[in-house]
């Protein structure tokens, strides 16, 4: 039995929700792979169950599932030179964007409001500003309130690690099976350049003494999480000339202690943020420097390359922020949870993902069969669902893929200003987009006008919409085969 083609819009639009329910309830399945998943062969099934709907722990899941952060725990027990607590936590957010701080009761109402309206929601995270383990009572109260009503939501925290070991048992009891620790060093001398002080055991420590304590506590926390089977992601802020070279050592240490993922993020530094690094002119790495380091780390702890350094109150798919739709003043005091949208979405997505997995594996085989040693960098305009489904002029972020003999890999994203506003494109904006796309060979989008297409071509970037609404990997494999292999270029995806 054949299922109708489903666009991402139809999955998430409230107007077509009845259609979505009908599809979800329909018997049978069109996909040869329905019910299958993208579980890598080498991955343990229990681990796959934990990550398969988590947009940060599974690159594939980030096309389908959303996270939200609630800023309930603003107190912090350390000072990082890249943070100014007037702003969001630099570990997990864009500094300079102030969060709405919430009480645990307000957070519960907000999570329910989002879950009722955003069917992709799968994860609730507490990720700054402040430290979720130090401000523990608020973290715990929030998780207990939410988990008692939305039982299948995944709970996630981000911490600097200093107070983590004190709460690992409670985290395990609350079924928190994803924890992020920000670890920027394993050498206290380097740590002293990043952390001016910590507050531990009722007193302030500074310099190398502070960094040594922090390092020991981070390693202890990581080992305790690993022992309990809690998946740990390590965030490291890449700070040129301070810890950039050293992060290979960090990668080695965390891999040995069971970290599941290592996420190297660029330092965001601007004098306007008022941070120590911002005010002293410490620069962040370029996109190329970050990629070069990430490439060097391949083969160590598995890398996360799709992080968006989200706000501490972000809502939605990675790369989008729907936070403004859910400010606390817009949410009723009496709100109750309605699971129907999330349940229907999951059923439909399970089928769509099965088809995507098959298409992706065929695409990777095509690229490998081309037998070329060359690579292609492709920037894709997408709203999610693993498809090329965003207009060039509407996108604010391109997802970047590399096709090479190793296959097709997601390697990052490039943020851009929206080109088309009010039906017209702005030349200055196009110039900045072309600059942001430096090094990209091909742009894939659902639609593009002749003017931006021609200007991109002048800059050596080919842009095309013939693969619009098809799977990303399928289009990339056709292009790669046409460029370097023997297969003719397909007219459509
Ligand atoms: S741990 Fe987070 S909130 Fe605390 S100082 Fe560092 S970046 Fe800021
Ligand atoms: S900051 Fe990175 S790891 Fe955290 S929610 Fe955003 S994408 Fe995921």
UniProtKB/TrEMBL annotation:
Cross-referenced InterPro entries: Aldolase_TIM (IPR013785), Di-Nase_FeMo-co_biosynth (IPR003731), DiNase_FeMo-co_biosyn_sf (IPR036105), MoaA_NifB_PqqE_Fe-S-bd_CS (IPR000385), Nase_CF_NifB (IPR005980), NifB_C (IPR034165), rSAM (IPR007197), rSAM_sf (IPR058240)
The keyword Transcription belongs to this UniProt entry's keyword annotation: no
PROSITE patterns: MOAA_NIFB_PQQE, RADICAL_SAM
CDD domains: NifB (cd00852), Radical_SAM (cd01335)
Entry-linked Pfam families: Nitro_FeMo-Co (PF02579), Radical_SAM (PF04055)
UniProt keyword annotations, A-Z: 4Fe-4S, Iron, Iron-sulfur, Lyase, Metal-binding, Nitrogen fixation, S-adenosyl-L-methionine
Functional pathway: Cofactor biosynthesis; Fe-Mo cofactor biosynthesis
Keyword Glycoprotein applies: no
Cofactor: [4Fe-4S] cluster
Tree of life domain: Bacteria
Domain Radical SAM core: 62-311
Job description of the protein: Involved in the biosynthesis of the iron-molybdenum cofactor (FeMo-co or M-cluster) found in the dinitrogenase enzyme of the nitrogenase complex in nitrogen-fixing microorganisms. NifB catalyzes the crucial step of radical SAM-dependent carbide insertion that occurs concomitant with the insertion of a 9th sulfur and the rearrangement/coupling of two [4Fe-4S] clusters into a [8Fe-9S-C] cluster, the precursor to the M-cluster.
Family label: Belongs to the radical SAM superfamily. NifB family.
Protein name as catalogued: FeMo cofactor biosynthesis protein NifB
Organism: Mesorhizobium australafricanum
Encoding gene, per UniProt annotation: nifB
């Amino acid at each position: 039995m054949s299922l109708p083609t489903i666009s991402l819009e139809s999955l998430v639009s409230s107007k077509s929700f009845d259609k979505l329910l009908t599809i979800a309830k329909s018997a049978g399945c069109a996909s040869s792979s329905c019910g299958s998943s993208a579980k890598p062969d080498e991955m343990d099934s229990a681990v796959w169950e934990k990550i398969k709907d988590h947009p940060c722990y599974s690159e594939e899941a980030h096309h389908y599932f959303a996270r939200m952060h609630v800023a309930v725990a603003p107190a912090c027990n350390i000072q990082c030179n890249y943070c100014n607590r007037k702003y969001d936590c630099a570990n997990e957010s864009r500094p300079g964007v102030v969060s709405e701080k919430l009480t645990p009761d307000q957070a519960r109402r907000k999570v329910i409001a989002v879950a009722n309206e955003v069917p992709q929601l799968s994860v609730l995270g507490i990720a700054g500003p402040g430290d979720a383990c130090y401000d523990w009572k608020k973290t715990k109260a929030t998780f207990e309130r939410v988990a008692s009503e939305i039982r299948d939501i995944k709970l996630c925290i981000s911490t600097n690690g200093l107070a983590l070991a004190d709460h690992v048992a409670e985290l395990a009891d609350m079924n928190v099976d994803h924890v992020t620790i920000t670890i920027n060093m394993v050498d206290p001398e380097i740590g002293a350049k990043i952390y001016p002080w910590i507050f531990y055991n009722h007193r302030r420590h500074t310099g190398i003494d502070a960094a040594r304590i922090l390092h020991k506590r981070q390693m202890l926390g990581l080992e305790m999480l690993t022992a309990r089977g809690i998946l740990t992601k390590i965030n490291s802020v890449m700070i040129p000339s301070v810890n950039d070279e050293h992060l290979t050592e960090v990668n080695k240490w965390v891999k040995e202690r069971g970290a599941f993922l290592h996420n190297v993020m660029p330092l965001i530094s601007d004098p306007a943020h008022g941070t120590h690094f911002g005010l002293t002119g410490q620069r962040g790495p370029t996109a190329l420097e970050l990629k070069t380091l990430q490439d060097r780390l391949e083969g160590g702890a598995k890398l996360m390359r799709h992080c968006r350094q989200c706000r501490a109150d972000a809502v939605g798919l990675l790369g989008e922020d729907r936070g403004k739709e859910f400010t606390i003043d817009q949410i009723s005091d009496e709100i109750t949870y309605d699971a129907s949208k999330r349940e229907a979405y999951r059923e439909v997505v399970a089928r769509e993902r099965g088809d995507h997995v098959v298409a992706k594996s065929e695409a990777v085989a095509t690229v490998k069969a081309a037998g070329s040693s060359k690579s292609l960098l492709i920037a894709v305009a997408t709203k999610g669902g693993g498809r090329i489904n965003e207009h060039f002029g509407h996108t604010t972020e391109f997802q970047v893929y590399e096709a090479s003999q190793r296959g097709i890999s997601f390697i990052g994203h490039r943020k851009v200003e929206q080109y088309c506003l009010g039906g017209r494109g702005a030349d200055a904006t196009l110039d900045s987009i072309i600059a942001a796309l430096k090094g990209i060979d091909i742009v894939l989008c659902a639609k593009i006008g002749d003017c931006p297409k021609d200007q991109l071509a002048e800059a050596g970037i080919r842009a095309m919409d013939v693969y619009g609404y098809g799977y990303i990997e399928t289009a990339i494999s056709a292009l790669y085969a046409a460029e370097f292999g023997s297969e003719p270029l397909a007219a459509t995806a």
